[in-house]
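Honest question from a wet-lab person: if I give you the sequences of every part of a complex, can you actually get the arrangement of the whole thing, not just the pieces? Trying it with mine:
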Amino acid sequence: MIDRSAAPSALNSIPALLARNATEFSTSPAYREKEYGIWQSWTWAEAAEEIESLALGFLNLGVNEGDYIAVIGRNRPNLYWSMVAAQMCGAIPVPLYQDANAEEMAYVLGHCGARFVVVADQEQVDKVIEVQEQLHQFEHMIYLDPRGLRKYDHSRLHEYSHIQAQGRAADDEFRPVLEKRRAALDLDSTCVMLYTSGTTGKPKGVVLSNRNIIVTSQHSSEFDHLKLGDEVLAYLPMAWVGDFIFSIGQAMWTGFCVNCPESPDTMMADLCEIGPSYYFAPPRIFETQLTSVMIRMEDAGKFKKGLFDYFMALARKVGPDLLDGKPVSLWDRLKYKLGEFCIYGPLKNTLGFSKVRVGYTAGEAIGPEIFDFYRSLGINLKQLYGQTEASVFIAQQPDGEVRSDTVGVPSPGVEIRLEDNGEIYYRSAGTFVEYYKNPESTADTKDAEGWVATGDAGFFEEGTGHLRIIDRAKDVGKMADGKLFAPKYVENKLKFYPNILEAVVFGSGRDRCAAFINIDLTAVGNWAERNNIAYASYQELAQHPDVYKTIQTHIEEVNKSIAEDSMLSGCQIHRFLILHKELDADDGEMTRTRKVRRKIVEEKFHDLITALYDGSERVQTTTEVTYEDGRKGSISANLELRDVAVVTPQQKMAAE
Amino acid sequence: MNDMSQDGYVTEDGRQIGGVMMEMKNITLKFGGVVAIEDISFDIREGEIRAIIGPNGAGKSSMLNVISGFYHPQEGEVWFHGTERPAMKPYEVARQGVARTFQNIALFEGMTVLDNVMTGRLTHMKSGLLSQAIWWGKALQEEVKNREVVEKVIDFLEIQSIRKTPVGRLPYGLKKRVELARALAAEPKLLLLDEPMAGMNVEEKEDMSRFILDVNDEFGTTIALIEHDMGVVMDLSDRVVVMDYGKKIGDGTPDEVRNNQDVIDAYLGVAH
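Yes, you can. This is the full assembly:
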């Protein structure tokens, strides 16, 4: 038997990091999972034992170097272990989105040619069995939760714990092989393959090396001073690069503890129990939490509500400054302390943010009110910009320089270059190796010098050097006078108003911008109810003069804020209308993930666009709609068009 | 049913069904002059899912109440595990390993889901009043052991997220599931379900069907259920008893019952 302490000394692979953690941090918690109502925990030494047994079991099952092992399921320690065990055997883990349907899974499993699949439960087993005929390389499936699987044909199906037991039994036989495979890993061997979600075309397999993951984890951990003893809640999809970096890369590098919720539904309660010190969430989650707080405060008693309003106003005024270390008067500091005791502390505790030292949001633009709400409570919420091909980090906000409208400065070790059209290129140690079996796409995205095109357009803010993202590069156009036209930038600003559900801005190649607006039926309906405005349909409410007035004010505010950006001042909206129907995926106007299909909207509503530019007061239109059952119908409406005040940059200068 | 040996049979999906667990022999139940059940005999075998169906007022719930020991029939015998069961109190029947859910949900509305499910363990608690009161020794051990069983049931029925929620705040479909959880917590040998799908939408019915099948499959629990949704009954059950006006008019596999003329008449209606 080979001495276990003879682990590779250089930290050049995830298994090497694990070996270090198992000796140096042997008694620190590495993983926790809530099961049967209790947090079960594994130390680094215990986790290492579990992972090694599984790796030995894999070898026993015939895993070869370079094999692909797919992992499907929600965040569970055992599935994280299976990824590391795969690496130990020289195989490459491929985590998949657990909510993907069988067909999508068939594509990815077929594309990477996975010989082995590790799944969480019966649901995933069924999906794989459904498509296994199409998968020529597929051999064995390993499942975690045996429930409902007793009567399945077990010739190719194995229970996770059995594989581990077989591994332990075959320790003598396979330990030398395992040591050899583990020692062969270096910075250039593949660490993981992640499939991009593929909003356009088929998903692409992004190959990330140990260098990509380890160097990125090191840099980002140092950037935010992540350390042993930090806690993180792993609840975002395992197939997403962020989760791989946070729950495997950074966790292995620093030795912090990864906590897995009991089930997706208990996420919020588990968050509160764990109180993570390092937290990541997309804007949507912050928004949901804020809404639920606000709704509950509406139902609170007068005294409590008054207290909440008073201290929240104070927090909005001084909270962000305190967090950024800017000067705040002593009196305000005292009041903020009192607020911390009465309101902020308990509120943060309820939300599960009491201990958050570093919080990140990314993925899409976050509304300034939402962002400021959390910042004002003293939660160090920051933004980052990244993508799978970069091993997440391209730009991020340093402590003390946080704002809602930038994504921060280039991450450590990342170079950023801007093309003339504003497209962002980057180069770093985290830059991906290649797209698997897709040299053309690799060449399209990454040039010989290692620069990768993000497809996003942005610019560096003068003075601060912060990067600001404006839109997808292909959507950024020029207006008739040559000014930059960035529709999504404006649309996002509009969508931050709760009353506005969707906005589509036009103006490419024209002399001024105009917009379609979709109102949010819930928000506006609520408002109508409170103001005794009767309406029979979405269409009727949308055309109500008061609704138009409200939307007009929102747009004018947005115009004001756009005018402050000299580069984008041309994107102010001159005229708008509120659409008589909601843009809908069934009608092809949006994708299933609720992104507007600009081309189709332009074709379908060309009469309305013409009207926006020819100065008419009203327009009569008929639109075809598809009902959920596939039948078609049509609705006609008489829509009002309105002019909006715009701010010319010169006027703004004069006003200052 | 004559082709069935005493040792049981194998179902279409390959499950082995055991010998007779409970046998009803010539049961007659009267309320004053009203005859609710008239001379009915049938058996329930180890590991099977047995359905009792019939139009409104056919006497199905009364039959279930006879099985659970709530009603005592004037005539006939109830045989359980090969011995004749004397007239028992319902809690005595429960101790023998029979648990049930109710047509109208009967949970403690003000208590949390966890506490409600814990009440299902009542028949397994044996520590004395003193020990319970000072919360030490046997009572504590028992609580831990029972909580473990309860947590496994909670995990099984996927109700972790409402563990600490008062039952009164839950929607109807979830209350039904909590009731099933309480019955399962008793670790019954025979589980009686009185209209488990009543008032549910299609999705909730699918969930409940899956849970019923899983309970049967995972714990080997024998299940007797009353249900109105014919699709559900025909899909779930191994054998079906059909009742009408207190009489048994059919008994057999779902296919046999479906083609039984008396059953068709009872459901579609003929001149009586």
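Two things worth pointing out. Chain A is about 40% helix and 20% strand. Residues 390-430+439-473 of chain A form a domain with the Luciferase; domain 3 fold (CATH 2.30.38.10).
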